[in-house]
Amino acid sequence: MSIPDRIETRISKLFNIRYPIIQAGMVWVSGYKLAAAVANAGGLGLIGSGSMKPELLKEHIQKARLHTSNPFGVNIPLLRGDADKLIQTVIDEGVNIVFTSAGHPGKYIDQLKNAGCVVTHVVPSVKYALKAESVGCDAVVAEGFEAGGHNGIDEITTFCLIPQVVDSVKIPVIAAGGIADGRGMLAAFALGAEGVQIGTRFAASEESSAHPNYKNAIINATDNSTVLILKKITPVRMIKNEFALKVLEAENLGATKEELLELLGKGREKAAIFDGDLNNGEIEAGQCSGLIKEILPASIIVNNILEEYYIAKNKLA
Amino acid sequence: MSIPDRIETRISKLFNIRYPIIQAGMVWVSGYKLAAAVANAGGLGLIGSGSMKPELLKEHIQKARLHTSNPFGVNIPLLRGDADKLIQTVIDEGVNIVFTSAGHPGKYIDQLKNAGCVVTHVVPSVKYALKAESVGCDAVVAEGFEAGGHNGIDEITTFCLIPQVVDSVKIPVIAAGGIADGRGMLAAFALGAEGVQIGTRFAASEESSAHPNYKNAIINATDNSTVLILKKITPVRMIKNEFALKVLEAENLGATKEELLELLGKGREKAAIFDGDLNNGEIEAGQCSGLIKEILPASIIVNNILEEYYIAKNKLA
Predict the structure, then answer these.
(1) pLDDT score of A2 more than 90
(2) Which positions of chain B have pLDDT values less than 70?
(3) Closest of B252, B21, B248 to residue B237, by C-alpha
C-alpha cells in the first residue's frame, strides 16, 4: 500500500520529522547506528546515553551526524550521577532534541532551553506530566506500566494514562508502553496521543547494538513473558529468567530494599543486553514483546508500522 | 452530533444489539435495572449473578424482561460453589446470552449450547483465549490488568492483550479493562476488538445498585487511585483505602496466602459496594476510574460513549 509522505501532528512539527514515531533511547541498545537509521526512515531516533560516558556520547553524536542529515535526539536519564556532564556534552555538540527521564527536569530545563533545545520529559502519571509542563517542557512521553525497563511506581497502563494526561496538559503527548506495531500507534492516537515512542520493537532491530541472544529473547517471548519487579528499588520490566524469578521469589517472601539491592548487584543490564547472559542479566523488554516476531532493519520496522497503521485505520473507517 | 443507528461488528451481530457496548456483570452493582437500561440504550446489559443466589437471579431475569424487550445476558463466575445452579436458572428462564468468568467454561459449555445459549468467556491471556475457543465459546472478553475487581495473574495490559488475542483466535474479541469512554472504545477497535466491555463507568451510573458512597469513590478517583492486591489469593483491583493499604503493607512484608485470607475475611465486596463502607470494604473499580467524573443514567452514558467515539474517529481521519 502507498504510505503518505508525512503524518502531521504537533509532535512531527516539533521535531521536524515526517512521521511521529520515536525510537526510545535504550541502554546498550540505541547508539548512533539505530538512531541514524530511524532518522533516515523519517522517524525520530534517540541515542540512549544511559549506558554511555560523556566521551562515548560525544562520539555517538558525531557518528550519527555522519550517517544522517535528519534530526535525531539524545535521551538522558537524570538520575545518573554525571547527568550534568551528559547534558553539557549534548549542548556542546549542538544536539537540539533532548528527552529526559528518571528524574525531574526542572534542574536542567533553563540550561537546555537557553541552548535552543526542545525538551521532552518521560512521565508515568498525570502529576509528573503537569510538573513537566509547568517547568517548560515542550512535550511529554506518557509511559505506561507495560513499558520495558524502568517504570513508574503507580502502575498506570497506557490505556488509562494517555487520555488522562491528554486531558490534563496543553503540550502534546507521546504515548509509550505496549506499542509495537501500527495498530498500537493508531490506538494511541485514538486516545489522544500525537506521537508514539517505541522501544522493544527497535531493540530487536538489526541496527540495535544489543547482543543477538537478547534480541532472540524478545522474538521468542509470548504475552506473559515479562514481569515488573524490583518495586522497592525502582520498578523494572524484564523478560522472566533465572534472575527475575529469583527476585520475584525474594519479593514474595518480603525481601527488604537492602536485600534486593544485594541480590541485584551491579551490571545486570549490560550482562543481558550487551553481553547476552540470559540467565543472570536483566533482559529489559516491554510486555508487547509477544507481538514482535522478527529482527528487521529499522527502516523496514518504520515502514511496517506505517503500513499496519494505515491498514488498521482503513479497517476502522 | 448525530450518532448512526447501528455499529455493525461480529459482536453486535452475535448478540443482535445496535452497539457493541457491553455493560460488565458486576457483583452488587448490575441487577435488572442497570442491565435493562443498557439494553434499552442499544448495548448489551449483563446481570451480574456473582452476588446472587439462584432465586434472586431468577427474580432479576424476570424483572429485566418487564423493563426491556431487547436482548440482555447474565454473567456467571464459574468458581462459585453453586455455579451449576446459576447456570440451570439461566437456562430455565430462557436467557440465551451467557458470559462466564473466573474458571473454565469447558465443564458447562455443552449444557449451555444445547440450551441455545451464546457463550462468551472472560480471559486474561492468549492461552485461555485459545482454550475458550477450543471448547466452543462464541466470543471472548479479553480483559487487561487495568480492569476492576478480579484479575489475571499475568498482569497483561489491554494494550498488549487485545492484539495478541485477536491474532490468536478466529472468534470475535471484546476488549475490557481501562475503557471508560469513546476514545477507549475507538482505541480497542484499533487494536482489533469488535466490542468493548465497560464496567466501572456503569458502576457509577444511576441504575447501578451500588451504594452512593461507592459511586462517589469512583467519581473522586484520580489516575493512581487503584491498586492490584491479594495476588497470592486471586488478584483484585480496588481503590486504595484503609483495607487495601493494610493488605499492601502485609504483602510487602511477605504475608503468606493464609495470612492474607485471614486479613481478607468475608463480605468485604458487599461492605464497600453495597453498604458503602469505604474504610473496611473492597472498593472494586478499574484503573480508568480517574476518567469518570459524573454519575449519570446508563442511557446517557451509552450515548456519551458513542458521541466520544465518533468525535475521536473524526479527529483521526
Answers:
(1) no
(2) none
(3) B248
| Interchain pair A287, B156: CB under 8 A | yes
Query: CA of A119, closest CA in chain B: separation in Å?
Result: 24
CATH entry, A10-210+291-316, from 3.40.50.460, 3.40.718.10, 3.20.20.70, 3.40.50.1820: 3.20.20.70
How many CB pairs (< 8 A) connect A and B?
A: 149
Enter the C-alpha cell of residue B129: 483465549
Residues 132 to 171 of A: which have CB under 8 A from any B CB? 144-146, 154-161, 163-164, 167
Measured distance CA(A180)–CA(A178) in Å, rounded: 6
What confidence tier does A284 reach under pLDDT thresholds 50, 70, 90? very high
Assign 3-class secondary structure to A103-163. Answer: CCHHHCHHHHHHCCCEEEEEECCHHHHHHHHHHCCCEEEEECCCCCEECCCCCCCHHHHHH
Is B31 in CB contact (< 8 Å) with chain A?
no
Chain A interface includes B8 (CB < 8 A)? no
Cell of B236: 483484585
pLDDT of A48 > 80? The answer is: yes
Instruction: Determine how many CB atoms are found less than 10 A away from the CB of residue A114.
Output: 9
Cβ of A223 within 8 Å of Cβ of B187? The answer is no
Minimal CA separation from B146 to chain A, in Å: 7
Average pLDDT on A8-36 reads 98
Give the closest residue to B159 by CA, choosing from B145, B148, B149, B171. Answer: B145
Q: Name A55's Cβ contacts closer than 8 Å, sequence gap at least 6.
A: none
Scanning every residue of chain A, which has its alpha carbon at the shortest distance from the alpha carbon of B194? A316
Please give the pLDDT value at position A208.
98
Residue B156 DSSP SS3: coil
Q: Which amino acid is at A152?
A: G
pLDDT for the residue B15:
98
Q: How many residues does chain B have?
A: 317
Cβ contact, residue pair B316, A186, below 8 Å: yes
CB contacts, 8 Å: A317 with chain B: 313, 317
Whether B262 contacts chain A with CB within 8 A: no
Phi and psi for A3 in degrees, rounded to 5?
A: -100, 130
Whether B1 and chain A come into contact, CB under 8 Å, resolves to no
Q: Quick check: helix, strand or coil at residue B227? A: strand
Interface test with A, best of B160, B167, B197 (most A CBs within 10 A): B160
**Chain B residues inside the 8 Å CB shell of A126:** 222-224, 290
Percent of chain A scoring above 70 in pLDDT: 100
Domain range summary for chain A, segments of one domain joined by +: 10-210+291-316, 222-287
Please check whether residue A36 is in contact with residue A211, taking contact to mean a CB–CB distance below 8 angstroms.
no
